[in-house]
Each structure stands twice: as structure tokens, then as C-alpha cells.
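G., the chain you wanted modeled:
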Amino acid sequence: MTARRAAIFVIVLGALAAWIAAAATSGVRDIKPVAPFSPPAIDTSGTALEAEIARLHDRLRPTASPRLARDLFQFAAVRPAVTTHAAPTEPAPIAIPAPLPPPPRLTLIGVAQDGAEGGAVRTAIISTAGQLFLLKEGDEVTSATVRYRVTRISEDAADLSAADQTTLHLTLK
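Predicted structure as C-alpha cells:
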């Protein structure tokens, strides 16, 4: 390194150190005396506040006791239980009917039609238990273990028949 280059290096580092030192020191400021502490205005009304608190505490603790002692959990006087000595009879057995199968949860959502009026082919859009079916006349669908066959599809309704000759009529809602 040459002497000239070393001198430039020392001058640049000295200027940088002076710049950082100047930024780090605070400027000259006048020292102002601290004002003496004065109590806030709330302290002057402390006695009034204490009197109000005492008055409220007296309202919380009533000095007069209730005149009637009553049981809030009892609505009437306790009566002795009347016991009758009847001959025990055996109840007749109750016939419980067999539970009916749940009705099918089939819903007609829409009817689609392909072709002209004369040769139109209709498709019933039926939903059940999270499934969607596109059914034409003669197609079958199963709901709650019952199999239905589409017998007729009109513009706003569809008829389904089961194997036990029951008919289910679905209409658009």
C-alpha cells in the first residue's frame, strides 16, 4: 500500500468516526427545574368519597331481619302421604306395534325435457340422502331399502311405484 493511499484511508476513517460520534452525542440543552408535586383534585374530595362508600355499604347490609321465616323451595305445607292397601293387580300387557319403516326421503328437484312436444323424452331429477339421480320412465331407484320404478313423468311431477304396489307421487316444490 502506498503512503498516499494509507493517508486517504486514515482521513476517511477519521471523518466517519467523527460523524458517528457527533450523531451519538446529544446537543447542549438547558436544564429546567422540575415543578413541585401537587396532589390531584381527587384527593381533596376523598372525605366525600369515603362518606359515599360508607353509605353504600350500609345499604348492602340491611339491619332489619325478615319477619317471616319461609322456605323458598317448598310451596305448600307437607302433607302426610295417604297410603291405601289395594290388592296389587297385574297390568295388562301393552301391545307395542311394530315400528313403521321411515318414509322415503326422495325429493323431485326438477324435470328436464329433450326433443319436441310430440316426441319429448322427460328426465326426472331426484335427490335422496346426498345422491342425485337422473331417471327416465322405467328406471329404478333405491331409497331406505325400498326399490322404486319410475312409472310416469309429467311437467311438474313424477310417479314412482314399489314392488308392493305402493305408489309415491313426487311434485316440484
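Strands lie at 107-114, 121-128, 131-135, 140-143, 146-153, 157-162, 167-171.

Shout if anything looks off.
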